[in-house]
Structure formats: structure tokens, C-alpha cells
Specification:
Distance between the termini: 12 Å
CATH class: Alpha Beta
Number of domains: 1
Strand order of the largest sheet: 1-2-3-4-5-6-7-8
Order of helices and strands: EHEHEHEHHEHHHEHHEHEH
Number of helices: 12
CATH architecture: Alpha-Beta Barrel
Structural class: alpha/beta
CATH superfamily: Aldolase class I
Shape: globular
CATH topology: TIM Barrel
Number of strands: 8
Bound molecules: phosphoenolpyruvate
Strand content: 15-25%
């Protein structure tokens, strides 16, 4: 059985005071997840150290929302893998569609970041997803395949044991319009088949593929019941402790 990973992407929300409130709220309502389920919170950089301190000895793991492809040096405004590890991050979200759209991140750059993350002991959550236009043109699978080939280029099988993929249709992110379980399952199955072609079936069978895009308490259990959906990357609904707790509790 594959493990399941539920991750909350806070995006650019919550200052320090609000971070303390949200973490304390999460700790008070999120019961111990079922065996085989990991829960990750990804606050903004400025909240990571405080969150790490509050989450010590809790069920929550810590992740960041982005990372530099460089180790250190004259890269104003950037944050390195070493900095993330030093504050207790185990995960890092890479290639979120908002990074691709607003910060011009390419598959090539995301691939460099992914290599840097795995080489240094961070688990990358690698995001892929098609736009509405691409879905309507019927080219979803081609788009996803190109993104996957790009972001995984040069990663070895041994690296892939530390990689999580997230399918996040761009048209479903923050819109309140989720992919149906059937639509999501089709793409997840496609991703798993492609990873099997690129690596092996046994590796693909073990790969955690999260779904993201307007996951909420009322749609989480149907999405998470699909064979190839192994967790969720949650935006808006992770900012409310009760909603996030319900989503975590939806894993069967
Ligand atoms: C996300 O930020 O990755 C996301 C899926 O957001 P939302 O759940 O708000 O659609």
C-alpha cells in the first residue's frame, strides 16, 4: 500500500501572530492521522522557524513553498536548501503553477531545484498541471507528459524514492472548481504510466501522487478514494483548522 501525504500550502498568508494562531488551532483539532498518512504544513519562509518550534513533537511535518536552485551566494531574495533544512523543513513544494505563471519558472529551472532538493535530503513535491485552454484543446496528457519529462530529467531511480508528484490542474487552483474524481484519476493514472516508462513499474507503483485544486472537506473523500490519488495538496482549505482536519480525516 502506498502511503498518503496531505500537505497544506499556506501561500502568501499569515504573519507571525497569525502563524501561531493557525498552528495552535491545527494542533488542537487535527487528531493523529491514520497509519501511513503524513501531514505537512508549508507556511511562508518568514513563519518557518516559529512553526517548526510549535510543531516539535507533533504529527505535523514542515515544508517550504519554494527554494533556490543555488547553494548560496549573491542571489538577493532567494532561500537555499541549507536554510530550509536548518529551520527543520523536510519537504519543499516546487513548480507550483503560481511560480510558473507569475515568476516565469520553467520545467528546466524546476528540474534544477528538484535535483538540488533530493541531493540534499529534502523531499520535493513537484507540481504539474494543465490550463483550462489546454484541457479544452484535448492536450492535457501531452502537456502533463512534457512537464514530467522536463522536471524529472536526469533524476535517477534512487532519487525518485524521495520524490512526490502533485497533479494540480491550473483551472482548479483557488477557483472553487475541482477536477472531478474521474478526471483527476485519469491524469494520475497517466502520470503513473509515464513514470513506469521512464523508470520501472515497481518505482511507479510506490510513487505518491497528490491531487491539488480546490480540495475541500466535501470533495476530499471522493477524490482520495481513487486508486491513483495518494493525497492532497491543499491551498485555501488548509488555512482553516477544521477544514484541514476534515480533509486529513477523509483518507481511508
Ligand atoms: C494550491 O495552492 O496548491 C491549491 C491547490 O490551492 P486551492 O486548494 O486553494 O485550490
Amino acid at each position: 500500500m502506498r502511503k498518503k501525504v496531505i500537505a497544506g500550502n499556506w501561500k502568501m498568508n499569515k504573519d507571525l501572530v497569525e502563524t501561531v494562531e493557525l498552528i495552535n488551532g491545527l494542533k488542537s483539532v487535527v487528531a493523529d492521522p491514520k497509519p501511513g498518512v503524513s501531514v505537512v504544513v508549508c507556511p511562508p519562509f518568514t513563519s518557518l522557524a516559529v512553526a517548526a518550534n510549535l510543531l516539535k513533537d507533533s504529527v505535523f511535518k514542515l515544508g517550504a513553498q519554494n527554494m533556490s536552485e543555488h547553494d548560496e551566494g549573491a542571489y538577493t531574495g532567494e532561500v537555499s536548501w541549507k536554510m530550509l533544512k536548518s529551520v527543520g523543513c523536510e519537504y519543499v513544494v516546487l513548480g507550483h503553477s503560481e511560480r510558473r505563471q507569475y515568476f516565469s519558472e520553467t520545467n528546466e529551472l524546476i528540474n534544477q531545484k528538484a535535483k538540488k532538493a533530493v541531493a540534499n535530503g529534502l523531499i520535493p513535491i513537484l507540481c504539474v498541471g494543465e490550463t483550462l485552454e489546454e484541457r479544452e484543446k484535448g492536450i492535457t496528457e501531452q502537456v502533463i507528459s512534457a512537464q514530467i519529462r522536463g522536471v524529472l530529467s536526469g533524476l535517477l531511480s534512487s532519487d525518485m524514492e524521495r520524490v512526490i508528484m502533485a497533479y494540480e490542474p491550473v483551472w482548479a487552483i483557488g477557483t472553487g472548481r475541482n477536477a472531478t474524481p474521474v478526471q483527476a484519476q485519469q491524469v494520475h493514472q497517466h502520470i503513473r504510466k509515464l513514470v513506469a516508462q521512464l523508470y520501472s513499474w515497481s518505482l511507479a507503483e510506490g510513487l505518491v501522487i497528490q491531487y491539488g485544486g480546490s480540495v475541500k472537506p466535501d470533495n476530499a473523500s471522493d477524490l482520495l478514494a481513487q486508486n491513483d490519488i495518494d493525497g492532497a495538496l491543499v491551498g485555501g482549505a488548509c488555512l482553516k483548522p477544521d477544514s484541514f482536519a476534515q480533509i486529513i480525516g477523509s483518507v481511508r
